[in-house]
Amino acid sequence: MKTTAKVAGYGNLQVVSPYDIQTLQELQLVKEATDHAKLYLTGIIPEEKKDSYIAMATSSDIIEVNEVEDGRVVRNLFTGLIENIGVRAVRGIYYIELEGISLTSQLDIKEKTRSFQDKNMTYTALLDLILKDYPGSDYLDYATNGAKLEGFTLQYKETDWAFIKRMASRFGAVLLPETSSKTPKFSLGVPDGKLGQLQDYHYGVARSLDRYTEATTGHGSELDETAFTHYTAESGQYFALGDKVVFQEKELTVAASTARFTEGGLLYTYTLCQEEGVQQNPIRNEQLTGVSIEGKIIEIRRDTVKVHLDIDKTQDKGKAWWFPYSSVYSTEGADGFHCMPQEGDAVQVYFATSQEDGAVAMSSVRKTGQDSPKMGNPSEKYWGTNFGKEMKLGGSDFVLTAKDTKEGKMFIKLDVEDGIEIHSDKAIMFSAEKDLEIETDTKFEIKAQEAIYLLCKESSIVLDGETDIQGTVLKVDGLIKSPVSVADLEPEPEPEDPAPPPPPPEEKKGFWDSLLDGVQLALDVVGMIPGVGEIADLANAGISLARGDYAGAALSLAACVPFAGWAATGTKFVKKGMNAFETGQKIVKAADKVIDTTKTAMNAIGAVVGKVYTSARNVIANGIDKVANAVKLMKQQMKSTVMAAKKGLQKKIASIKKNVKQGLANLRNKLPGPSKEFVTPEGIKVNFKEVKDQAHKIELPKTEVQQNYLKAMKEMEEEAAARAAKETEKPQKPQKPQKPKKHTAEKKSNLQSGNGPYSHLNDSKYVGPGKDFTAAQKRKIIEENMKQNGGVVKSDQSGQIATKPQKSKKGVTPDPNEWQIDHIIPRDKGGTNSFSNAQVLTRKENRDKSNKLPSDLDKPSKKTPPTKPKRRKK
């Protein structure tokens, strides 16, 4: 029900409301910047309506206050919603009390939480998006001037009015509600109002120093104190918020107004200040501090992520904001712990302050999903990726897993009870620039299904069904040394007509073996020929294999060290023809480092030399035709393998070859002197000579292998010439050598061990004569000595306190009191490495100690040394 009441006073006012107000008693209308307009009204109502008005009141009731002249409305002073209603009785008279609020209050009812992640969205587009939920609403923008958000913006537990007010504060602007409209309308910023003259009948002046301090200190405003000086003036003239008035010869702006109903009509009280003073300091949403909002990752880039927040129904992936992701530990440099989540993972966006621009994504959250056995034991920690890489930290084990599928497994497991386990369905390589030491107190096992290769320069041990041992010097020691007795040979008379000696049997290790060694070396080095991308052009590279000159090919191939082939691409050297056995040497990545590449190539060549000698028998049995066939087959295999590589790799090799070739030419031209020669780290002199178009190789001096090979060939030629000469000559009768006198070497003492202070310690099964004490034995002896001497080490001979041995340094004399562990019975006298044969001495005592034993009286006699039977010269 609506009732129109016209109240006449000294001024003409009209109140339109659902209630029959007979007499207007009081009226106050308050309008302020950034707040809703408020109406306070008191009037007299009929007695019979006192109860029904309360029952019929609703939240959508509208009240209007108009100014009329001659029966027509001149202006609307207020239109709004009835916010509160009350009825009271005073001496039998019933009064109704109403509180009204402007329609902009409809934007200030429901709190909302949502995000605006498009940094290119303008503030006008943001306001349009917000006001579309309020039919008929509108605004006038006097502040943003088409500006964009330029960052992530969040409305968190804020009404639309509070959120718009906070957005306006970014420009220092205020919101001015429109009180004459029947729909929500407002101005963002101060409009250009009308200009009027205000008489200064009654006024006051004040200055807001607290607002000035906040504006200039916290937010960097450049306003001075006069902007925060305001006047309070009373007048019967009507001015709207934002109007300009001339007061005391100053042009000021109406920032607030209060209208009161009096006997003479409406009296207005205005707050006037400079236009710069009608401003709003930046507002922050303090509720946002410490808040985490969950969401799902929709895109990842470097260390940032895009997140679809759970508070939003939809999120355009292209317009989403890039949040920095907070990993466990990261720095500004290259170090730190980089562990990014995956698309689809649930994360939390954390706000450390009341400002949105400090938000970071962090702490991936596991949502409800399938049960995982890894989650069953909280004491076990897992760190894994979607590619199968995983790190497990259990109560007793630590496991690094690279692959765990049906096709194969690859992991390293460290268990405090079971030890260390390395499992791989691929090759395992250990590489060290310096020493690689393996030490065990019990046993060390190496098992292989096909073969085991132990290689060191020109020495090797090969176990591949047959056992081959190769070395310049081969020394074999037995565990038990028995006495040797050599009897003197009786002299024999020379025969008168001895038969000619039989022709010498064909030696297995002669010309052919030397030749095969060289050819095998060639086969091993074929994979390292420069120009590996063009295997068909081997002949053009100066290689003589295709012409059948195998000896020359072996030497030239062994002298070739690549700089533009596999070495430049970082590929491993592979010895062809031997089950693709990898030498384990990684080629340098930087092809322009000439000396380092030379060192790597020479090491790779030396690593296969030992196997070259011992495996030659498996390549060719005999015959020059099989040599040629083996070389031909190897070339075909090499070509098919290389040509099967991807085109990208071949292009990369070609590009690197070109660059390295140019780099070598530049280096050669920059070298001082005419010799163009320098020395590699191994002491090999390298001479950069001018090369022709396709001979892209570096000639090195002949290696020891090549020199031995040439020597073997020369010996073969001399042997063949000597054999031919023998066939034409008549053999002479050999003289029978005189039988030497019998000589018996006296038996050596087989001393084993003493009866030292450590005889109570248990020996291992590897104890034997002539052996030194192992590192584990020495540690155990020192520990036992310290137990016996109260925590210090003392000499078992003199009881003197001994010091710990130090590493020897050039020019520094060792401490004579350093402890040393010595054999009681020396090793060369049959002493073992048993604990019972050990004693702790100082360095000086050990130096002064005589190694002769009282029982060492049975040395071999030097009177008659054993002699070999003499044979008559041919």
Automatic annotation (TrEMBL):
GO terms for molecular function: endonuclease activity. Residues 781-847 form the HNH nuclease domain. Residues 487-509, 716-874 are annotated as: Disordered. Residues 795-805, 831-840 have a biased composition (Polar residues). Keywords: Endonuclease, Hydrolase, Nuclease. SUPFAM superfamilies: Phage tail proteins. Residues 716-732, 820-830, 842-861 have a biased composition (Basic and acidic residues). Pfam families: HNH_4. Residues 736-745 have a biased composition (Basic residues). InterPro entries: HNH_nuc. This is HNH endonuclease.
